[in-house]
Amino acid sequence: MRRAIVCGSGVAGLSATIALAMKGWSVDVYERSAVVREIGAGIFIKANGLRVLESFGVLERIRRDCVILREARTLDRNGEVLQRRTLHELNPVWNVQRELLIRALFDRARELGARVHTDSPVDDVHADGTVSVRGRRTAAELVVAADGVNSVARRTLGLDLPVRSPRSGAIRLLVPRTTYEADDTVREFWSGRLRIGISPCTPTEVFSYLIAPLSDEHGACAPVAVEYWAARFPKLAAQKFFERAGVAGGVHHRYPFVSAASWTKGCVALVGDAAHALPPTLGQGAGLSLMNTLLLAEYVASRSDIPGSLSAWEREWRWVSDRTQTWARRYDWITSEWPPSVYALRDAVIWGIGKSHRFNSYMRIADRVDAARGTVLPAPRFVQNQLR
Q1: Would you state the pLDDT for residue 322?
Q2: Distance (Å, whole) CA 16 – CA 13
Q3: pTM here?
Q4: Fewest CB within 10 A of the end CB: N or C in the chain?
């Protein structure tokens, strides 16, 4: 039986574990934390990720406790609609509690025979498939490094490019759901350089994110500065949203932009945030990780030459993640760095983006990847974007 080592037990690491185990690999996962868990609130899963979860046999476990969103809206500070996008079966978006997703993936990995070693930080990784865990060396035919933004593997293998410092970040939290969030709709409110997203996550909770430039000392701190945010979003203040958010607390996260000189070296592959951390503006953080790990497993399972198969995987599929990163960063720029003197023009740009089917198909290319079949699906023609 072929053996693989996976560094990290987040979405990318557990996804790689499942994909390889389903191909008959023996997999050991090394996780630096004492327990397998996900810090955060909610997470959006789009069509490419949902296809992977279905192939893993975990989609129904998640369906029971998530919210399948029907519509996405962009609004101004007063609640006036700038853009509306209907979410149909061919471009679905599910909102899932992060802990629920991690638990479903972890349970499936264990069912397939994977061994998960907690409190086991990987100290060193070599291109020949040798890793050091607390000073003890072990080796495998394949190493999948899913060890995050500050990846040990990326650094020790000499694949580092400078991690671009983030200009913005978000407070993420779960807030009690009220009648104001009765519809299964994700709403994103824009006010100057601030942005608030509110999306039902369970029958009783909404996943919320409050995004601000890091230079904004009141906006970029947790818990939520209730009066500061309420003054800039009067519509949400009237709905008592900030009172609920203030009680919920939340955690602030920055948005670094990670790129690697190469995703592969010898028998090692970088996946997830270790390879392509990006702003969450296109909702593809989890989707890219799920998609790329399933594709990786397909390549190494069908070829005996591990370094060659990893190189082919990166050569034929990295472009999707690179494009998604680029446009996620550009879309984030529209919020956090757009010149205040021309905010009226920004509204027109948002409207134009929403109306352009061709542009959305290009920018949201990751949504259309069917990793199980190794193909990119045609863009759904019936998706309509409209202004109010």
Answers
A1: 97
A2: 5
A3: 0.94
A4: N
